[in-house]
Write a structure and sequence with these properties.
With about 290 residues, chain A is an alpha/beta fold. Helix content of chain A is about 40%, strand content about 20%. Chain B contains 11 helices and 2 strands, in the order αααααββαααααα. The chains are: A alpha/beta (about 290), B mainly alpha (about 260).
């Protein structure tokens, strides 16, 4: 399962005063088992790009090949593509509509034409993946749940379709720190269980540094950088010029190094920073 | 898909037409509609066409853009055309099975279809060149004499402003929810009428819930800023008539007068 994007262009509202070039000659390969962080300032084209990946938007030109099938061609089987590529929108809780949590999560599998017992097992599995208790919540109305729980129900609704590629558009926006950590933890567990490719759109450099193994940075409709988190976060100045940044702890280590301490600033997480600092202090102490 | 609708959309600009007093534009549009219905033969349509082309040219809106506004109404125009084509009795031109086309039918159907097309094009210039805010300001001013008989002009105008303000927001939201449900395999495009209506539930329920939530938030925000209706309310930019408005009125009165006269000569 691999996604290959070639020479993709997209223009919003062509031939009107509101014409905007949202994507400009995008070339990107997403391999099986990748965990990609998609970064970019508001309006950089991230959301437009991800909506192309399951055929919700038709490109102005270019091709997108998912699992060997060009989904931009006329007559492509969009249903099977949307099953393979699951997309969780920003603030997905606003799309809930059913009377019960169970029914809402079952909506996707039902549209795939699965039988009841399969749907039942998928709903159970999806709820477990996002940390919702099946027995106590399945008959509740999704509208009376808390914000974090609603969001989980919405994510479970996409997971129940068992996609091979899962795209999450800022899954933690507007959640409190605990809700954020829980959801990110669940996404990480899901990835670690294997057999899934994840694309995470995020504004948090910390989250991306901690979770993903490849970063794609978008700027003004183009791919500006691509590489491992370590490679990308070394280019702090460039990132800042795009209105982005690097993780706080990396900033700290850079400053600490600048003020004359011989540490490596190639540090992305708090754990790494702790180790590096301990190593440095121990070495200094021994001198 | 849903964003393609251009009816009611504002096309920003700084032209004479944009700068005209909204009251003038609203009244001219009304006069345009009325005089369009006074026309009973083909040749005054040339004047109408000339009017539409001139005003469009002056407003700087590309004609292609005005024509785009016809797209969502193609169906209605076609229905009108065919009903008039087949249902009008008269001298038979030719027959295809049960369908009879008469000379009068052909004349009538072309006449009606053109009337509809001109109606849409002529009035869409109003919304294309007037921002929603000045449009409702204009309506409020026009209605304000009726305050004397108890018509809440300001409240009506405010309701219109809010409604207009939220059209793009709701369209955007519809688009987003539609896509979110399509990502879960929902199908809005195929099936018969019954199943299509049923398929709309996953779209309408979230849309309504969000609209109510938004209305609630808006009411709260207005109250937080001490909004309390039209009583003693003043405005920063009062609209007032200028020279160009009087010139426009004069030209228009003559033009519509001529149009109405064509009926009797």
């Amino acid at each position: 399962m691999m996604i290959k994007i070639e020479n993709l262009n997209f223009i919003y509202n062509p031939d009107s005063p509101f014409e905007t070039k949202a994507l400009n000659n995008i070339n990107l390969e997403i391999n099986e088992g990748d965990f990609i962080g998609l970064l970019g300032h508001t309006g950089s084209g991230k959301s437009t790009l991800i909506q192309h990946l399951n055929g919700l938007i038709k490109p102005t030109s270019g091709s997108i090949i998912v699992d060997g099938v060009d989904i931009t061609e006329k007559g492509a089987d969009l249903k099977s593509i949307r099953q393979k590529v699951g997309l969780v929108f920003q603030y997905p809780e606003y799309q809930l509509f059913e009377e019960t949590v169970y029914k809402d999560i079952a909506f996707g599998p039902k549209n795939l034409g699965l039988d009841d017992s399969e749907i039942d097992s998928r709903v159970k599995k999806a709820m477990e993946l996002v940390g919702l208790d099946f027995d106590s919540l399945k008959d509740r109305s999704p509208f009376e749940l808390s914000g974090g729980q609603k969001r989980r129900v919405a994510i479970a609704g996409v997971l129940a379709m068992e996609p091979k590629v899962l795209i999450l558009d800022e899954p933690t926006a507007g959640l409190d720190p605990r809700g954020r950590d829980e959801i990110l933890g669940e996404i990480k567990d899901l990835y670690n269980k294997g057999n899934i490719t994840i694309i995470l759109v995020s504004h948090s450099m910390e989250d991306v540094a901690r979770l993903v193994n490849k970063i794609v940075v978008m700027h003004k409709g183009e791919i500006a950088m691509e590489g491992t988190p370590r490679e990308v976060f070394r280019r702090a100045e460039e990132l800042e010029s795009m209105g982005l940044g690097i993780p706080q702890v990396t900033y700290f280590m850079r400053k600490y190094k600048e003020s004359g301490n011989d540490v490596s600033s190639d540090v992305l997480t708090i754990d790494e920073a702790k180790e590096e600092l301990l190593r440095y202090l121990r070495r200094n102490g021994n001198d | 898909m849903i964003k393609d609708i251009t009816i009611g959309q504002y096309f920003p600009g700084e032209t004479v037409i944009h700068k005209l007093d909204p009251r003038v534009k609203i009244l001219v549009s009304f006069a345009f509609i009325i005089s369009l219905f006074f026309i009973n033969k083909f040749y005054p349509y040339i004047l109408i066409l000339a009017y539409i082309l001139t005003v469009t040219k002056l407003s700087g809106v590309p004609i292609k853009y005005v024509l785009k506004g016809l797209k969502p109404l193609t169906f209605i125009i076609l229905i009108t055309f065919f009903i008039n084509l087949f249902m009008t009795k008269g001298v038979v031109l030719f027959e295809i099975g049960p369908l009879v086309i008469t000379e009068e039918g052909l004349y009538q159907s072309l006449f009606m279809a053109l009337r509809l097309i001109f109606l849409i094009m002529g009035t869409s210039i109003l919304t294309l060149t007037t921002s929603p805010i000045s449009l409702t300001d204009g309506i409020e001013k026009i209605l304000s004499p009726l305050k004397a008989i108890g018509l809440p002009a300001h409240e009506l105008a405010m309701m219109m402003t809010i409604a207009l303000r939220f059209i793009p927001t709701l369209l955007e939201e519809t688009d987003k929810i539609m896509k979110a449900q399509m990502a879960r395999g929902a199908d809005f495009e195929s099936g018969n009428i019954m199943s299509r209506a049923k398929n709309l539930v996953p779209l309408l329920v979230p849309l309504f819930i969000n609209a109510f939530r938004r209305a609630d938030e808006l009411a709260m925000a207005m109250e937080a800023r001490c909004y309390r209706g039209g009583e003693h309310r003043t405005r920063l930019n009062e609209i007032k008539m200028e020279k160009r408005d009087y010139i426009a009125i004069t030209i228009m009165v003559i033009f519509f007068g001529v149009l109405v006269l064509t009926r009797y000569i």
